Amino acid sequence: MNKYLVKIESVEYRQGLVDKFEKVGTAESMPDLLLVTTEQPISVIRECAGVVMVESDGMAEMLVDQPDAPEWGLPWISNSGGSYENDKSGNGVDIYVVDTGVRDTHVDLVGRVRTLYSFDGAPYSLVGDQSPTHGTSVSGCAAGSVYGTAKEATIVNCRIDWSTSDILKALDKVLRDHLDKPDERQSILNFSGSSLSSIIGDAFERLTQYGVVVVAAAGNSSEDRPRWPARNTWVIAVGAINEQEKPAWFTNKNCDVYSPGQDIVTASVFSDTSINTISGTSFSAPYYAGLLACLIEGSDKFNSSSTVSDFIWRMRNQMMETNRIANFPNGGLPVRTATTNGLGGNYYVNPSKAFTDSEIRDWLVANADNPQVVADACESANLSLNRLNRIAGPDIGIDDLNKYFKDAGVTPWWFT
Q: Angle between the 305-318 and 198-209 helix axes, to the nearest 10 degrees?
């Protein structure tokens, strides 16, 4: 049987595929993205009504590492001359790690890991074709109590088999989890891998549209540009430097930010106390994801792409030092490096908290006949989709939010 990733114009076209093919699975939170399993060739799916894009299932690339050397990364990030100094710890922030799995009993992470998705039901493995320690080592850099930048953040484990279909399943779970959790919990996703799939790129973009900050490794192939999905404008691309303050020999260039990525000491999967020394942009990225978790500690969950875009723009000034490194080749772009500077105060408070559910409901009753006014006001208040779903209902004419806005030709604020 062949497996395909399919994007359709709208959910109305799904039934036509269900009637024609052996198995059609739908991403719960992204219903226009489907997994189709069939004996038929890809050309048959392309000819179906409503199909925008179709890809054969394939394998994404885990960005491999190379071992050995001393600990230096955390002191360099805080520019402290020997210690790691950070007055925030990422408490209350979820860092989703889409990777090989996380050893949740490791002393550097214990008590702060929850498994959201696993392709085989196990939180991690000690064997496998892919590097078994990769996900645990990434998590150690992001949130390890000793080796991480956000020492009290929660790691949300999403264990994948690195097929594009499995990545889509994991991202769907991430989006649903993000939407369902309280407004007080922020969301950052780390992806230390590479995939050329356009549909996977669309899925990452969908996450940012709903308020998830996405950080990705730039790649380890010494190329002039980051790999996908890090190359996308809605993803923060992180490259690697070495202890000599030069580009790591393997790092891709033209990145948004650089952080330590060569000879990094972090947690290892092989026992509850094991560590290893490891290299790769796979470990630069979670260092920076952890720093972002520290920056937004105490802030409210983002609910739209506009708040994510504003955050990414602002963090260039708050979480990066420009031109700390001289003569660094970056294609003419400013060389920004990770730092703990600029962490004072809460980053973001949701303005919708100024209004009670009852007040919002009364306002919706008075304005339900003008979807554009509703969309504009809700975006300005960063009203979460979950909260609006809870408040709205058929008695005020908004029982199906997507249909309500679509029928009026209005783009919902979470897609702006």
A: 90
Among candidate residues 165, 194, 282, 299, the one labeled active-site is: 282
* 299 in active site: no
Q: How many other C-beta atoms can be found within 10 angstroms of the C-beta atom of residue 29?
A: 20
Q: Which of 106, 134, 192, 300 is catalytic?
A: 134
Per the CB < 8 A criterion, the answer to whether 192 and 62 are in contact is yes
From 124, 141, 137, 136, select the one nearest 90 (Cα to Cα): 141
Q: Rounded to an integer, what distance in angstroms lies between the CA atom of residue 299 and that of residue 301?
A: 7
Is there a catalytic annotation at residue 29? no
CA angle 6, 201, 47 (to 5 degrees): 25
Of 65, 94, 99, 172, which one is the catalytic site residue? 99
What letter represents residue 126's amino acid?
Answer: L
- Tens digits of residue pLDDT in 53-62: 999 998 887 7
Residue 376 annotated to the active site: no
Provide the pairing of β-strand 93-99 with 186-191. Answer: parallel
What is the Cα–Cα distance from 253 to 52, expressed in whole angstroms? 32
Model pTM score: 0.85
294: CB partners within 8 A, 6+ apart = 86, 88, 89, 90, 149, 150, 153, 340, 343
Tens digits of residue pLDDT in 291-306: 999 888 888 788 777 7
User: What digits encode the pLDDT tens for the residues 255-267?
Assistant: 989 999 999 999 9
CB burial class (10 A; 0-12, 13-18, 19+) of residue 2?
A: middle
∠ CA 400-401-405, nearest 5°, is 120
